[in-house]
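Extended Data, panel c. Modelled sequence:
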Amino acid sequence: MRRILCFLIPLILLATGCEKESSMLVTRLGNDCINRYYYVPFIVGSEMEFAYAMFMPRGSGRLEEASVRCSIPGAEGTYLDHVAYSTDEYGQDKPWPMGNPNTVEDGCHTVTFTADTIAATLRFHYIIPEEARGKKIDFHFSVRASNGQTADYDITGCQVRKMDMKLDIKMTPTRCFFSIDKMKALTAAEADFEQVPVDFAWAYSTAVTDKSDRSGFFNAARLDDFSTWYSFPTLSSPANDTKKMYRYNIIEPQLGRQEFDGFYIDDRDFETLRLDCDTAGLIGINARNGFWVETADGRYRAYIYCNETGAESCTVSIKRYTL
């Protein structure tokens, strides 16, 4: 399990320390940068966040401009924040405007400082585009000071995964069918109208004694086997015989948004996974657990995570890998 590395830039010391200490720590314009979520698998559509710190000696001028260039331009929503943050006594971020909102030219995001400062940390929010799927991304950060000095910092080789991810898909007693190909829940009417092959179904039943099995996920081709305990709408569209379903009781932090708990499922897990079992078509499961599944045609492997479950609805999230 990956752990978060705490990283604190001593900007306050640089800005307020005595002249002797300042000259020992900082002799010219400098910079540093971290990927704040380096330990999380990078997936198309998700966000990467960087903290870019800049600092210079007292009395040598002020920060003038910060910029970042990406080897693959980010998707909509990518920007270099013009606001720095400090933490108040309640642990909440307190914003401090440092310059004008970022401008973008030829794929380069730039913030021009308006605050008279020798130290700042700006956050760069990068939305991973489809063009980056399965590729590595490089980031080049740079800063310029009023005295003409410049500094650069590179973060290279950020590997974007091949998998897809979709969060918080709500299933109900009527919208109880799921297509891994579409990564969405469907009613019987929607599945029939779109002729979408269904891979599994969800149902809840108090007739089942074991509470852990009351919320069940089923092979869509075997629903009649469980009609004594569970009821499903009539489905006319194709139902895949998804035999390879395997329960896996872990908290997946990206799917469950539990920042410190659990294990991240990555591309390699899908590539090396052996699903030779047949669960007879039923997975009984509680919230904060999940199950592996491989589609009947062998096209996809997926991990289905159950965020919440109850008699009226179930919320799931999915990571899907194309074989």
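Residues 19-25 form the longest helix (7 residues). This feature is highlighted in the accompanying rendering.
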